[in-house]
Specification:
The chain has 214 residues and is of the alpha+beta class. It has two domains: 2-127, no CATH class; 136-207, no CATH class. The chain has helices at 14-25, 59-71, 82-87, 92-95, 103-108, 131-164, 176-207, and strands at residues 2-6, 28-33, 37-42, 48-55, 75-80, 112-119. Strand 2 and strand 3 (37-42) form a beta hairpin. The radius of gyration is 21 Å and the shape is elongated.
Length: 214
């Protein structure tokens, strides 16, 4: 039996890896994935194990890494990072204080994940994620999300001011009450995401090393 699951991860490494292994323990083997969807087929419960490899390299090293993992007998799936879809292709580093890079460098540095599958032999995966690199990745999006949350909260406050004063702070974009409801709901969602990202970056700060051994 085939099964399609739609799922979004804020913590796209640890939480996604845990979830994939839980699916395998439930008798579902990964057969394909997209940004928000996963395809599974039946398998024996616990027959497979999954690891998630964070890739922050240029195109050629990324393909070389994938071939090397496949050469070790692993099954490897490319998984675009959810955040790249949520925030688009704009360079958020330049907006929130990180170093500037040329357009060519930004294009070459596409970040993604490799979902790695192997048969469950109780041995660890023969790869590792560098905690400092993963922390830097999450830090960018944590700072971006916090910044966007502050802006949305200001817009919500402007909507309140518009309701209780005669001056229209909303620039006519939405009726004041609709604006208040929309920006308040959006700020609550963004606040929850920001808190999640703060916890994730704190966890990788404490790790101070690699996730997978050997």
């Amino acid at each position: 039996m085939r099964k399609t699951v739609f799922k979004l991860f804020i913590d796209s490494i640890d939480k996604q890896e845990k979830w994939l292994n839980e699916m395998a323990d439930g008798g579902f083997r990964l057969t394909g994935c997209n940004r928000l969807s996963y395809e599974f087929e039946d398998c024996a419960p616990g027959e497979y194990r999954y690891g998630v490899r964070f890739v922050h390299d240029k195109a050629a090293p990324r393909q070389s890494l994938k071939r090397r993992l496949e050469g070790k007998g692993y099954r490897v799936y490319n998984k675009p990072l959810n955040f790249n879809w949520l925030f688009g292709t704009m360079d958020l580093r330049s907006l929130f204080g990180a170093e500037n890079k040329t357009g060519a460098q930004q294009t070459a540095e596409k970040k993604e994940l490799l979902l790695v599958e192997k048969r469950n032999d109780d041995a660890p995966f023969d790869f590792r994620n560098d905690a400092e690199t993963v922390f830097s990745h999450y830090k960018i999006f944590r700072n971006s999300c916090v910044g966007i949350t502050v802006v949305v909260m200001i817009l919500a406050a402007q909507s309140v001011a518009t309701i209780f004063t005669r001056f229209d702070f909303s620039w006519g974009l939405f009726p004041p009450l609709y604006s208040l409801v929309f920006y308040t709901a959006l700020s609550l969602v963004l606040t929850a995401v920001s808190i999640n990202l703060i916890h994730v970056t704190k966890r990788y700060t404490q790790k101070g090393g690699a996730k997978h051994g050997a």
